[in-house]
Design brief:
about 325 residues; seven-stranded antiparallel β-sheet; binds zinc ion
Length: about 325
């Protein structure tokens, strides 16, 4: 099997771009969701893209209680997934997030940076508490805003959680609900219904917008929900893994909102549909300590991957293995 490194950069770029545009245009037709334009407030947030020098020795996150390394190779480590949160949707409903609009991404600059993940489901589907906690918001954002834009979430619920291994509170946010079925101050257990899927606020088509905020309920404190959710079973009835990517970027090359590809090693061009297309986080999107990720692929099939992105005509790449139910952190040297 021929690997990507045997192609000329020009051919590879055209392959990447043509595949990407097909993916994005198809995805937009199928998954139109939040639609408010403008990024001024989000861009005003402090960029937190990792800039520190990272060596193979320091790739391991410090928080061992949540990220216990199962093994570390030169370019990646594998951890037990934190799995502090359960899916907020019933097991027989769609669990897979819209991959064309992942956390932190902008659909290649066409939309505002996404602060959560979207999971399409029919209106009226029960929305479930992702963990035990206390309801701190139950209503809508007509008066109090929880997003840079007004009336963005529609009907929403926010739950505050104290979770094992986390020193700070974690908040989960459930938005665009057709109905809210809990009240502020109520204690909920994991799996309790908190509302119903809808399309209120800035949503086209019914879906759950699910968000995580760490330490503070402020929208500058978001964290990628797929870090915390238990890895899901995909359409092939396969337990997936999570692939996060960090960079060693001593020269601070701008790497926001770039196409990034995780391609199974050995896949031929004909099988390039097996590649996962993602986007590095937009400027100002928080990455999560101690991971410091610049991109993340949730619900990714277990395999050996080559991970590639391009900046200023140069390709940056690394290899990493994704295992069922595990969390892989891959590191790319720039
Ligand atoms: Zn959303």
């Amino acid at each position: 099997m021929q690997s990507l490194k045997h192609y000329s950069p020009l051919l590879l770029l055209s392959l990447i771009l043509s595949s990407c545009s097909a993916q994005l245009s198809g995805g937009q037709a199928a998954f139109s969701t939040d639609t408010i334009k403008g990024v001024a407030t989000i861009e005003a947030a402090t960029p937190q893209l990792p800039t520190e020098t990272v060596t193979a020795e320091t790739i391991e996150p410090e928080n061992q209680s949540l990220f216990d390394a199962v093994l570390c190779e030169e370019s990646y480590c594998i951890y037990d997934a934190p799995a502090l949160l359960e899916s907020p949707l019933p097991a027989d409903m769609n669990q897979i997030a819209d991959v064309t609009y992942r956390y932190g991404t902008t659909q290649m600059g066409q939309r505002e940076a996404h602060l959560g993940m979207d999971v399409s489901n029919p209106g009226g589907t029960p929305v479930l508490a992702a963990a035990e906690g206390i309801v701190v918001v139950a209503g809508n954002d007509d008066v109090t805003h929880y997003h840079p834009y007004e009336k963005f979430y529609g009907n929403l619920v926010i739950i505050r959680h104290e979770l094992p291994g986390l020193e700070q509170p974690l908040y989960t946010l459930y938005a665009h609900l057709s109905a809210v079925t809990v009240e502020v101050g109520e204690s909920v257990k994991k799996g309790d219904q908190v509302g119903l899927v809808g399309a209120t606020g800035a949503a086209i088509g019914s879906h759950l917008h699910f968000e995580v905020r760490l330490g503070s309920m402020d929208y500058n404190s978001t964290s990628n929900p797929e870090i915390w959710l238990k890895p899901v079973i995909n359409g092939s009835n396969l337990q997936t893994g999570i692939l996060a990517v960090k960079v060693n970027n001593p020269n601070n090359i701008p790497i926001d909102s770039l196409l990034i590809i995780a391609r199974p090693v050995g896949a031929s061009p004909e099988k390039s549909r097996a590649a996962n297309y993602g986007e590095t986080y937009a400027k100002g999107i928080p990455s999560t300590d101690p991971i410091h990720e610049i991109a993340l692929f949730g619900a990714i099939a277990p395999a050996e991957y080559e991970i590639i992105f391009e900046k200023y005509g140069k390709f940056y790449r690394t290899n990493a293995r994704v295992e069922s139910g595990k969390f892989t952190l891959a590191s790319i040297d720039m």
